[in-house]
Hints:
The structure is a homodimer. Chain A is α/β, with parallel strands linked by helices. Chain A is about 40% helix and about 20% strand. Chain A contains 25 helices and 28 strands. The two termini of chain A are about 40 Å apart. In chain A, helix 10 packs parallel to helix 11 and helix 19 packs antiparallel against helix 20. In chain A, strands 19-18-21-20-22-23-24 form a seven-stranded mixed beta sheet, sandwiched between helices. In chain A, strands 5, 6, 7, 8, 9 and 10 form a six-stranded antiparallel beta sheet that branches. A five-stranded parallel beta sheet of chain A has the order 12-11-15-16-17, sandwiched between helices.
Amino acid sequence: MLNVAELLDxxxxxxxxxxxxxxxxxLLSAYGIPVVEEAIVTEEDDAxxxxxxxxxxxxxxxxxxxxxxxxxxxxxxxxxxxDFEVIQAYRQIKEAAGEDWEGCLIQPLIEGKxxxxxxxxxxxxxxxTVMFGLGGVFTEALGDATFRIAPFxxxxxxxxxxxxxxxxxxxxxxxxxxxxxxxxxxxxxxLARLGLEHPEIKEVDINPLIVTPDxxxxxxxxxxxxxxxxxxxxxxxxxxxEQEQWIQETRQALHRAFNAESVAVVGATKPNxxxxxxxxxxxHLFGFKGRLYPINPKLDEIYGHKAYPNLTALPEKVDLVxxxxxxxxxxxxxxxxxxxxxxxxxxxxxxxxxxxxxxGVRLQKEMKQIAVEGGLRVIGPNCMGFYVPNxxxxxxxxxxxxxxxxxxxxxSGGNAQEITHYATGRYGIGFNKVxxxxxxxxxxxxxxxxxxxxxxxxxxxxxYLEGLKNGRRFLKLAEETNKKxxxxxxxxxxxxxxxxxxxxxxxxxxxxxxxxxxxFRQTGCVLVESVExxxxxxxxxxxxxxxxxxRTAVLGYGxxxxxxxxxxxxxxxxxxxxxSEDLLGKLRExxxxxxxxxxxxxxxxxxxxxxxxxxxxxxxxxxxxxxDNVLMSIPLDWLFNKEEGGGYIETLTRYVAEEGxxxxxxxxxxxxxxxxxxxxxxxxxxxxxxxxLLDAGIPVYEGMARGINAMAKVTAYYxxxxxxx
Amino acid sequence: MLNVAELLDxxxxxxxxxxxxxxxxxLLSAYGIPVVEEAIVTEEDDAxxxxxxxxxxxxxxxxxxxxxxxxxxxxxxxxxxxDFEVIQAYRQIKEAAGEDWEGCLIQPLIEGKxxxxxxxxxxxxxxxTVMFGLGGVFTEALGDATFRIAPFxxxxxxxxxxxxxxxxxxxxxxxxxxxxxxxxxxxxxxLARLGLEHPEIKEVDINPLIVTPDxxxxxxxxxxxxxxxxxxxxxxxxxxxEQEQWIQETRQALHRAFNAESVAVVGATKPNxxxxxxxxxxxHLFGFKGRLYPINPKLDEIYGHKAYPNLTALPEKVDLVxxxxxxxxxxxxxxxxxxxxxxxxxxxxxxxxxxxxxxGVRLQKEMKQIAVEGGLRVIGPNCMGFYVPNxxxxxxxxxxxxxxxxxxxxxSGGNAQEITHYATGRYGIGFNKVxxxxxxxxxxxxxxxxxxxxxxxxxxxxxYLEGLKNGRRFLKLAEETNKKxxxxxxxxxxxxxxxxxxxxxxxxxxxxxxxxxxxFRQTGCVLVESVExxxxxxxxxxxxxxxxxxRTAVLGYGxxxxxxxxxxxxxxxxxxxxxSEDLLGKLRExxxxxxxxxxxxxxxxxxxxxxxxxxxxxxxxxxxxxxDNVLMSIPLDWLFNKEEGGGYIETLTRYVAEEGxxxxxxxxxxxxxxxxxxxxxxxxxxxxxxxxLLDAGIPVYEGMARGINAMAKVTAYYxxxxxxx
Lengths: 725, 725
C-alpha cells in the first residue's frame, strides 16, 4: 500500500484537484480515522467474489479520478443481496460512468440510523479548522455543526461531541448502543493533524460517518480536496527564523513605545476650531513625562516647545514618532523615518484602505512596502494610538491619570476611549496600557497580545477586535495567555450584517461567526458584547477571587424581581440552587417575621434594617458548602426613606463593605443596586455607595442583571480552566 | 365505514385509552389529513393478495387494541418485496404479538427522505395545541418543533412550516420536489379542529409524516390517545350563559373600581415604623377624589377622616373595599362584604397560597369559596392594587399625577411600581390605569384585559405576567385586542429555572416556555424582557406612527460604534440597508469633507455643527423611498465641548426637535444619546435634552441599543398585522 506522501505526490503529479473516494479513505485511515473496509474491482467476477468475501448485503460505487456527484449520476448501488444483484449493479455503474469509469468500489453495507459528518476546512483567518455535526442528507438543511481550530486538545474534541444539538444521538438510542466516543475523538484529532501536516489539503468531507447499532464508528464516504495555494502566506514568505526575529523586534519596539522617553509629533498643530487639541496638544496637556518634539516647518514653537522642521532636524532618534499629516503626505514621512532610523511609528491620519476609495487603498499599499522594507513598526494608520497613564502618554482628549492592572487593545479609537472613560470614570479601575491600532499596517492584534502576555504590569487583557491578520498566531497566543491572564474580547461583527460593516471599516477580513464562537469555546477567552459589558466584566475579574462553581445565593429579591433573577441566572448558566432543609432551618432562625421568603433569592427586607440579621446571613453564606458565590441587592429607595436625607444608604453600605469583606472575603461576592423611583436625590447616593464598595474591593453594578452577567462570565472562565488543564 | 362519533363511542365503550393505528388514521382522515391507504388482514392469503393489489414493496404491522411500541416488539416489517416475504412477515408478527394479535395492517411502502411529525397536545393553560416539527427517529433528539394554540389561521399554519429549523427540507431538496404545503397546512388545521371538537382527545401523534419524492404528504403512522378528563374545567362548571353573566358582572365591577366614587379601607392605620403610610394613608395622601372611609374599631379618626368600626357601620355601599388586615382575619372580612353587599374588593394582605405554607393555602381556599358563593370580585390577595391618576387613586407610596393612554396589568406589585415609576419619572409618559392583582382569587389577567380592551382611555396595554388561570380566554382576548391596541407583555418565568420561581411566587401554573413563545408568534403581542424594556417599548408605541417596513437609516455612528449598530440591527431583524448610488450621490453633495463615511450608519460629525447639513440630511431621509425608519444619535460629549457650559447640547436638541418633526414627522423617528465621558456636568444635560425631544413627541433612549430594540419591536408589530389580516 502507498504511504501518505507517495499518495499525495501521485495525485499532484496527475494534477488532480481531489483524491478518489478510495484514496481519500486510505489517507484518512493513516490518520487514525476508522473507515469502512473496501476493495476496488475491475472485473465482474471479482466483484461477485469480493462480495462473497465481505458478506451480503454490499454496496457498489463507481471508482475513478473524475467521478464526483456519484449519487446524482447513478453510480451508487446499495443493499445488494446476491451475486446476481452485484453483477447487475456493476454493469449499470460501468455504463453510467462511461469514459470516467476506472473500476468499482465494493464495501459492506454499513447500517445505522445515526449519521454524522466530520470534515476539515481552511478558514482564511485561522487556517485548518475541524467540523463535527449531524450528517446524512440533512447536513446542510439542519446546519447542526461545531468547529475547532487545529490543533486542539482531546478535551476539546470531547466537548465538540457534546456541543452539537443532536449530541443525544451519541448516547444509547432507540435500542442502539452508545457511540464509541474514542473513535469519534480520534477522527476529529486525526483531521486536525492532517490539516496541520498537509497544507496542500484544502478540504476534507466525511459524510456519512455512521454510528452502527453496536456503537462502532465508520467513515462510509469521504472526499479530500487539494489546493497548493490553500495555505500560502499573505505577503512575502519569511523563514521561521526571520519570523521569530521580526516578532522579537516588534516586541522591543512596543516596549520602547509603551515606555517612551522621547516622542516626536509630525504635523503638530495648535488646537483646531472644533476644540480638539490634536496629537501634540493631547500629549502635552496630559503631561508627557519624557522629551516631546513638535514637528511643523511653519511654526517656531507650540505650547512652549521648540518646533522642528522635520525628523532629520531632531537632536535624537525618538522612541515613538506620531504622524498626524494629510494622507497623501504620509508615505513621505515614512521614508524619512526609515532614513533617520526612527522605526516605531503611530499614524493617526485616516483615509486609507478603510475609506474604500482607490487612492486610499493605493497609499496604504505604498506605505506597507516602505514599512516592510524599512523594518518600520507602524501602529495604525487610522487610529487613536496610545494611553499610558504612568508615562503620561495620551493621544486623545482626556483620560484618568490612575494606572491599574488592566490593558486594552482596540481596533477602534472610539471604543478605546469609551471603554477607558467608562471603566475609569464609573468604576475607578485603572488601565496601564491602552492602544488603538486601526488598520494595523505592520503591527497587529497578535503583536500587542504577545507583548502584554509578557508584561508584568498587566493582569487582565481586554480587547475590542474586528478582524485579524494572522488568526493562527493570535489563537495560540490567546490560548496560552488566557490561562494566566483573563482575556476579555468585545468582538465586533459577529452578526452577518455586522461582519459587512467590519470589512468596510478596517479592511480586515472578518472570520465567520461560527468559527469565532468556536474560538471562544476553544480558548476560554471571555466574549462580551458591548463597551459597557467589557468594563463591567473586567471589574469583576479584577476584584473577585477564583470562583469554585456556579451555585449562587442571591440576597434581597422577592416577587416579580425574584422571578427575573431566576430567569437571568438560567439564561447565563449560573445556578440558583434551592437551599437544603438544613440551611433553610438556619435561615428561619435568623430571619424573624413568619412568611418572609427565605428561599433563593432571599427576600428579607428586615436584614437591611437590622445589621445583626444581615451579619448572620453573611456568615451563614460564607460557611455554607452549598453556596459558591453570593450576590446581593442594595435597594436604594427603601434605604433612602429610612432617614431624612437618605444617609442610611451610606450607613448600610459601610456595613456591607466591612462585614461583607470580613465574612465573604473567601467567596466571590458582588453587590448590585437598584432604584426605581427616578429621584435625583436618591440617585445622588449611588456614586457614594459605589465608591465605598469599590474601595473595599467589592464589584458593584447598577441592576442585578449586570451583576449576574459578570458573575456568570467569571464563573465560566474558571470552569473552563478547571476542565481544560 | 364508521363515522367519527361512532368510532370514538366504540373506543370509549371498550374503555380503551387509545385508538389503534388503523382507527387513528380513519379519524385523522375525516379531518382532512392525508393518510396512507391501508387494510387490515386476518388471513395469510389475504395479506398476500392485498399486497399484490397495493403493489410491492409493502409494509406489514401488527394490529390490535393492546399493541403499542410496535417497532420495539418486532411488529413492523418493512420493504417486503414478494408474497413469500409478506407471508413470512405475517407469521412472525402474529407470533410476536401473541394474545394481543387482532390482525395485520398492510400498507404500501412510502419512501421519502423527508420525515416530519405533527401532533396535538393539551396544554394545561392553553388547551389544544398543535405541533409541527422534524420527524422520524430524530424527533426527540433534535427537538425541532413549533407550536400553535388552536384555533389558528391558515396564515399561522403557513408560518409554522417556515418556523422550524429544518424548513429547508420543505423546498425542492436533493432531486425531490418541494412539499405540498397545502396538504401540510390542512394537516395542522385539521389537528386544531379535531382538538377543539373533541375535548376527550388528549393527544395525537403523527410520526412520520412523510414527504415523498414527488412532494406528496402522507401520515404513515399515527396514534390518538383519549382522556375523558383532559379538558375538564378547574372549579365548578358553569353554563355558557352563566359564564357570560359572570364576565359581564366582572366588567361592571372593574368599571366601578377603576372609577370609584367611594372607597373603604378595612384595617386603616396610621403610618407604621418603616415609614410606609399604609393603604389608607396612600389613598389619602394622593388625594383620592371620592369619599374615603377608614375602618378600624380602635380609632376615631385617621388623617382627619372619621373612622368606622366595620363595613356595616358605613353610610353607603362602596365601589371598592380595600382589605389590609392580618391573613387569618380576611375570611371574616369577606363574609362581612357579602353580608353588606360590598362586592368589589382589593386584598393587600399576603401570606396565602403564595407562601407555600399549609395554613395560607387553606385560608385562600376558604376565601375562594366565600367569594364565589357571594359573587365577590376579589383583586388579590397578596397585591398592591390600584393606581388611577385621574381619580387620584393609589395604594402605594408615590406616583405621578399625570394620566396618559397606557394601562398596566401586573401580577407583581413590585414590578407595577417599578414600571410606572420608571416610565413616568424618566420619560413622562402617563398611565391611566394600573393594577397589581397577585394571587388572582376571582379576578385574573383575562378579566383586566377584557376590561381594558373596551376602555376608551387605553390605547396601549402593558402587562407583567407570570401564569394564567384561563389561557384560552386570555389568548382569544389578546389576539383580538392586539389588533387595535398594542399589547406588550413582560413574561416572568420563560426560563426553566425561572418557571420554578413563578410557581412558588403566585401559585399559578406557568406554561412551558415553548408554548409561550408560540403564544407571542400567534397573537403578535410584543414580548419584552425587563421592567425597563417594557417602559421603553411602550414609549415607542406611544409616539411613533405606524412603521412601513424594517429599512432603517442611522445617523451619527462610525467606527467601532457603527459596527455595534450593525450587529444590534442584525440581531433584531431591523434592516440597515446599503444606500443606493443615487442616495449616496445626494449625500455626497450635502456632506462636504471628503473621506467622511456616508454609508449606513452615516458618520457625519459636521452635521451636528452645521444645521444646514443636518436639515438637508433629514429632508433626504424623509423623501427617500428606500428608508422606512430613522434613528439618530446625539453625542453629548462632542456637543458639550462646543460651548462653555455645554449649552450647545440644548441648541442642537431644539433643532432636532423642530426640524426632525417637521421633516420626519411622516416617518418613525427615534433619537438616542450617548455619553462616554462619565462627567456629571455632561450628564446633567441629559434630562434637559430628553424633555425637549419627548415634548416634541420624539422617543429618546440612552444608547443606540435601546433605540434599535424599540424600533425593531414596533416594526415587528406592524409587520405581524400586515401579514395576519
